[in-house]
Amino acid sequence: MTMTAEAAAARIAVRVELGTRSYDILIGRGLLDVAGSEIAARLPGARAAVVTDRNVAAAQLPRLAASLAAAGIEVVPVIIAPGEASKSFGMLEHVVRQVLAARLERRDVVIALGGGVIGDLTGFASAIVRRGMRFVQIPTSLLAQVDSSVGGKTGINTPEGKNLVGAFHQPELVLADTGALDTLSPREFRAGYAEVAKYGLINDAPFFAWLEANWRGIFAGGPEREHAVATSCRSKAKVVAADEHETGERALLNLGHTFGHALEAATHYSDRLVHGEGVSIGMVLAHRFSARMNLCSPDDGRRVARHLAEVGLPTEMRQIPGELPDADGLMALIAQDKKVSRGTLTFILTHGIGESFIARDVPPAEVRAFLRETLEA
Amino acid sequence: MTMTAEAAAARIAVRVELGTRSYDILIGRGLLDVAGSEIAARLPGARAAVVTDRNVAAAQLPRLAASLAAAGIEVVPVIIAPGEASKSFGMLEHVVRQVLAARLERRDVVIALGGGVIGDLTGFASAIVRRGMRFVQIPTSLLAQVDSSVGGKTGINTPEGKNLVGAFHQPELVLADTGALDTLSPREFRAGYAEVAKYGLINDAPFFAWLEANWRGIFAGGPEREHAVATSCRSKAKVVAADEHETGERALLNLGHTFGHALEAATHYSDRLVHGEGVSIGMVLAHRFSARMNLCSPDDGRRVARHLAEVGLPTEMRQIPGELPDADGLMALIAQDKKVSRGTLTFILTHGIGESFIARDVPPAEVRAFLRETLEA
């Protein structure tokens, strides 16, 4: 009960404004222990399926299940294999059929307990069971807390590409228990941190400066962590509210992602480079390419690289273990990315830290030349 | 060109009002031949994937492909096996991957050419490729023209039940070529006609009376056919506009369907009873059950049965070949139906022809007793 009281005290609420589909993101230590009462208050009488992976189940499911039981919420657990390979059609079918077999109705709820893979897969499953079940996100990785659990993008991968199949499906509630991040590996924590830094780089220079001064508190689990998660969620919520279905400004959230995705594809989505590491290198490249196009100062790219390197993230393509494709090979991967529209290249470029913008019609020849120079440097 | 001019002259347009997602249903003979120009006018520059089954491809695809080519629309055909078994996760994955392999972008279009199975499967695939592709319905069965192609319900079946997995995804355009119905088998045409009659029974007694007087013209392919399809679409469009996601009045469209689905399940969705035949028997049962509950006159049920029998539809459970479950068995199937909510039974009942209403909390004991009497009669 002390835990509950503490959690209530430390909690930060961020509202995602989407009309009748608006919802809260609650951020704080110990929220897993009050998940039951928070859900019961919003969805009275609902039964729940909890989708999670074996690793998260071992670490967090008992606490969540106890909290749901205490609130009188009947739970059906659906436990799947961890890892990106679970974002597949086969696993989607498995989860969907488990939810159907549990005889949940449209007014019941599907809960995603885990990182980005669990959130994306479970959100998509909940979008299509009975043409839309209610859905709660309980993200347990930093990446999921600041990025993938917010905004309603759900999906799976196919051999044709990542996240090319999915739905926009907003949750009823997001519970980000910052204490759950204590058990992440340092590499996984850092990878999530790249997305935190991204919000400063997009449009919040003071936040980036605050991160430069305070990142150690975020990693150590001080109150800086809740502030960083809340600031990130607030920033993403604002963008999503303005452009839910990514027809415009939401693309800013892809800062660093076009280069990053190409590098992830080049390394076959392997352990050589995890998503946040690709984003880290991609953000540095986006700043350097912007400087090359005379859009910002080269000092900006140096400052970005210095901070990301300081927290332990890779910032250079040469830090990726193993061989990389040449510039033409990377260009081919960039052209395959879904953010290519009618043959022209759209990039998120920047006028400086906190001044990113959507650049359409970026000349492919300039990108190719930039990549060649960088790879040969 | 004569065909085109004729089609333009005979065409009826029905608007489905859904705000920014409003769209037209065009109804007339020969529309397949002008599909290209209609689509190009609405979606300039779009490329197209056409999903159809082997049977429809043989009968209609050359005409559609010629029309699209004439309008400068590049086409990728996706031809699948005919039959309800194609509404599966496996076929969904196949269609999705074919659309991705064709490298269609979000601004391109996926066209469903076929009956209800093709429309439901293709609509669902287009809802989830890139989180939502544009979609055009070209229904070639009477059932699809008056019911499944209108309203945005898409989906597939799983072993847990029919249509339990899917999405609400509205088309950009529906083209109902009434000439395509000339090649339907009489049984398939009659099955679609059950849904036409349904619109009269729900809330349009004059339309039901008009059908009693004019059904022969509909079957023979006279101008009565376009009038009947347009009246049906107009009726459905109105219900859908008022309740897109079926939280209320849209349930009226399920008149006859709760009994009908149970009978379809009882005959294992086999050739013993096709959907429209189940609806025909189900509508008669709904009127008789309403009379038994003193909600309408027994004469109404007699009149409904007389008309449906006149066109050649089954109206009695004993007309279904083979064994049926007993009343308890049928009740178990009714309870499995997705229109069961929190353990209470919701039925569409009626105060008379054209006066249907949603009855919640129908006592299961009354339904069971009614079924027992009917089966033993």
UniProtKB/TrEMBL annotation, chains A, B:
Keyword match NAD: yes
Pathway: Metabolic intermediate biosynthesis; chorismate biosynthesis; chorismate from D-erythrose 4-phosphate and phosphoenolpyruvate: step 2/7
Cofactor annotation remark: Binds 1 divalent metal cation per subunit. Can use either Co(2+) or Zn(2+).
Main localization (coarse): cytoplasm
Matches recorded under InterPro entries: Dehydroquinate_synthase (IPR050071), DHQ_synth_AroB (IPR016037), DHQ_synth_fam (IPR030963), DHQS/DOIS_N (IPR030960), DHQS_C (IPR056179)
Binding site for Zn(2+): 195, 257, 275
Enzyme class: lyase
Alphabetical UniProt keywords: Amino-acid biosynthesis, Aromatic amino acid biosynthesis, Cobalt, Cytoplasm, Lyase, Metal-binding, NAD, Nucleotide-binding, Zinc
Binding of NAD(+), residues: 116-120, 140-141, 153, 162
Catalytic activity: 7-phospho-2-dehydro-3-deoxy-D-arabino-heptonate = 3-dehydroquinate + phosphate
Gene Ontology annotations for the cellular component aspect, listed alphabetically: cytoplasm
Cofactor or coenzyme needed: Zn(2+); NAD(+); Co(2+)
GO MF terms, alphabetically ordered: 3-dehydroquinate synthase activity; metal ion binding; nucleotide binding
GO biological process, one term: chorismate biosynthetic process
Domain 3-dehydroquinate synthase C-terminal: 192-340
Limits of the 3-dehydroquinate synthase N-terminal domain: 78-190
Matches recorded under CDD domains: DHQS (cd08195)
Compartment list: Cytoplasm
PANTHER family named in the record: 3-DEHYDROQUINATE SYNTHASE, 3-DEHYDROQUINATE SYNTHASE, CHLOROPLASTIC
Family: Belongs to the sugar phosphate cyclases superfamily. Dehydroquinate synthase family.
NCBIfam families attached to this UniProt entry: aroB (TIGR01357)
Function: Catalyzes the conversion of 3-deoxy-D-arabino-heptulosonate 7-phosphate (DAHP) to dehydroquinate (DHQ).
Protein name: 3-dehydroquinate synthase
Gene from which the chain derives: aroB
